[in-house]
Amino acid sequence: MKKFEFVSEKKFNKPDDPYFYTKEDGYFVSDSGSYDKDQAYEKFLYLSQGGSLKPTIEVLDQIILND
């Protein structure tokens, strides 16, 4: 069972500018954060329903050099 948490973090030098993100099993989820609460919450819901924020990588061209 996975545990997802929607978190607000305020820096000591920016107390009026919270940063929102998702934690999965106590760990920060990369690319889940935003200063926009609604955007971060959408990502939280997506992740908690089994979605992934990992980027899709596609190799478009390749060159191999022989020494």
Keyword list:
alpha+beta; 67 residues; 3 strands; single chain
Strand and helix map with partners:
Elements: E1 4-11, E2 14-24, E3 27-28, H1 37-48
Antiparallel strand pairs: 1-2, 2-3
Order of helices and strands: EEEH
> How much β-strand is present in the residues?
25-35%
Low-confidence parts, pLDDT < 50 over ≥5 residues? none
Question: How many extended strands?
Answer: 3
Number of helices, where a helix is a run of at least 4 consecutive DSSP H or I residues:
1
- Beginning-to-end CA distance, first to last residue: 51 Å
Mean pLDDT: 94
How many domains make up the 3D coordinates?
1
Structural class per helix/strand content? Answer: alpha+beta
Q: Let me know the largest β-sheet.
A: 3 strands, antiparallel
Rg over CA atoms: 17 Å
What spatial order of strands do you see in the largest sheet?
Answer: 1-2-3
**Share in helix:** 10-25%
Molecular shape:
elongated
Describe the structure.
This protein has one helix and three strands; from the N terminus they run βββα. The protein is α+β, with helices and mostly antiparallel strands and about 70 residues long. It has one domain (about 1-65). A three-stranded antiparallel beta sheet has the order 1-2-3. A hairpin with a 2-residue loop joins strand 1 and strand 2. The mean pLDDT is about 95.
Give a brief rundown of this model.
This protein is an alpha+beta fold and 67 residues long.
